[in-house]
Design brief:
By secondary structure, the protein is of the alpha+beta class. Helices cover about 35% and strands about 30% of the residues. It has three domains: about 300 residues, BirA Bifunctional Protein, domain 2 (2-Layer Sandwich); about 60 residues, 2-Layer Sandwich (Herpes Virus-1), CATH 3.30.40; about 90 residues, Anticodon-binding domain (Rossmann fold, 3-Layer(aba) Sandwich), CATH 3.40.50.
């Protein structure tokens, strides 16, 4: 039997221990949909909480909102999604097989064709004589398919068309006016949304990387475009070194450039400041810098309204390549202007005697991708031992509490310790089943950061052993100091 690939190995672990699994599995699954299980839900929620603490903590004027997931058609007329949010689709004239046109090209020519227009793809298919990969039949002309789910909202004469939002960002744009006023008309104003988005992908695949229902964490920063070359906190980050592939110097590969150097190269200070924060976010999550990069898209590759576009990429062992986990976009006034035009509402603000439409800097994170990234980076094996090395603050549990044996009052004491820790805000569970070694191994497998064992000495001097997951080192700690030691933030 062939040896399992890295991807297969971690997928197997995650399925077995309920990180996530295909949705509606008992009905054979539902392509492009996944359920987070009892382990995964905890990790995902902790990642989201960390994201909130980190990004909302950057400025006092950054807030989280929860806009509706279903929105009416004019929203997507304004955003351009009705027209532009399409994938090129090609179908076989003989067997009916269909696939994304760029995917078929990629598979047969081993090059990237993402972002190429349908017309151009059509020409390339003819030029290269690309045939149906299933039956060798002739391919029909490339058409486009809008990726938004839509349906009727209401009944009878009051039916309107509703759309499941394809990104969370639009919610922040349509709320901008009200939030700006409610929050003392301050700029920059940050509106963050952590929530679901939906896309009817033609061929969902790669597990959590192309889903039809997924979670995003997006922060829209509205600011005065005249202040793009300044940020009051810039001195704090100016010497930090970022790992960047500038579009104009792609042949040089990843470069280590200080924030100050990036500004000298012409990148706006306001944007560079937030790039530094994005990299810091990933460093705090334990991502090694040599597997992280900002990959800049050039003018042909990025959307026409983006003045600046970096993909935030991490090298994943599972795919053997840098993979996009977040996006960093300077969108100009495209969004508010579009909504102003279609809604008729004035989106401008009056500040310091000047009337203008704020510009938007967008930090957009695919939560599911980031979740998977934690596991890809965290997987460890040593002989028979396999585990996920996760930072304690995103581990499903900070600690497991174990009586050495479930008798002589050790179990009772262990339950007491577990309850005490829970009350002190430490995320921990109690487990008395099986040998202590097996209990450690089970907890390691899902990335639990610490194991706390109550033994006979505990009954004498109120100390316990604390075992650290990665090193398996144990130390004796007094119960009164335990919560302090284990609290992750
Ligand atoms: Zn065919």
């Amino acid at each position: 039997m062939a040896e399992k690939t890295f991807y297969e190995k971690i997928m197997e672990k995650m399925l077995k221990r309920a990180f996530f699994y295909p949705s509606c599995e008992i009905y054979g699954g539902f392509s492009g949909f996944y359920d987070y299980g009892s382990t995964g839900t905890r990790i995902k929620r902790k990642w989201e909480d960390f994201w909130r603490r980190f990004f909302l903590g950057l400025e006092e004027s950054f807030y989280e909102i929860q806009p509706a997931e279903v929105m009416p058609e004019p929203v997507f007329e304004a955003s351009g999604h009705l027209k532009e949010f399409v994938d090129p689709l090609v179908q076989c004239s003989k067997c009916g097989y269909y696939e994304r046109a760029d995917t078929i090209m990629e598979e047969q020519l081993h090059e990237t064709f993402e972002g190429i227009t349908p017309k151009e793809l059509d020409r390339l298919i003819k030029e290269h004589g690309i045939k149906c990969p299933k039956c060798g039949g002739k391919l029909k002309e490339v058409t486009v398919l809008n990726l938004m789910f839509n349906f009727d909202v209401g009944i009878f004469h009051s039916v309107t068309k509703g759309y499941l939002r394809p990104e969370t960002a639009q919610g922040s744009y349509v709320c901008f006016k009200r939030e700006y006023k409610a929050n003392r008309e301050k700029l920059p104003l940050g509106l963050a949304v952590v929530g679901k988005a939906f896309r009817n992908e033609i061929s969902p695949r790669q597990g959590l990387f192309r889903m039809r229902e997924f979670t995003q964490a997006e922060l829209q920063i509205f600011f005065d475009p005249d202040k793009i070359n300044e940020h009051p906190m810039f001195p704090e980050v100016k010497d930090r070194v970022l790992r960047v592939v500038p579009a104009s110097e792609r042949e040089k590969g990843e470069q280590m450039l200080s924030c100050e150097q990036l500004v000298q190269k012409g990148y706006p200070e306001f944007a560079v400041y937030y790039m530094a924060r994005v990299q810091e976010f990933y460093e705090r999550l334990g991502v090694p810098l040599d597997r992280f990069r900002f990959y800049e898209k050039n003018e042909e590759e990025r959307a026409f309204y983006n003045k600046l576009h970096f993909d935030v990429e991490i090298f994943l062992e599972s795919f053997g390549k840098y993979t996009e986990v977040a996006g960093f976009h300077y969108r100009g006034d495209h969004d508010l202007k579009g909504h102003q035009k279609v809604s008729g509402e004035d989106m401008s603000v009056l500040k310091e005697g000047k009337r203008f439409i704020p510009h938007v800097l967008e930090l957009s994170f695919g939560v599911d991708r980031n979740f998977f990234t934690l596991m890809d980076l965290g997987y460890r094996e040593e002989g028979k031992r396999q585990w996920f090395s996760l930072p304690a603050f995103v581990a499903p549990w900070t600690a497991g509490v174990y009586p050495l044996v479930k008798k002589d009052g050790l179990d009772k004491k262990a339950r007491e310790v577990q309850r005490m820790l829970a009350e002190e805000g430490v995320d921990c569970f109690y487990d008395e089943k099986g040998s202590i070694g097996k209990r450690y191994a089970r907890a390691d497998e899902i990335g639990v950061a610490y194991g706390i064992t109550i033994d006979y000495q505990t009954l004498e001097d109120d100390t316990v052993t604390v075992r650290e997951r990665d090193s398996t080192q144990q130390e004796r700690v007094s119960i009164s100091e335990l919560a302090e030691k284990l609290r992750t933030f």
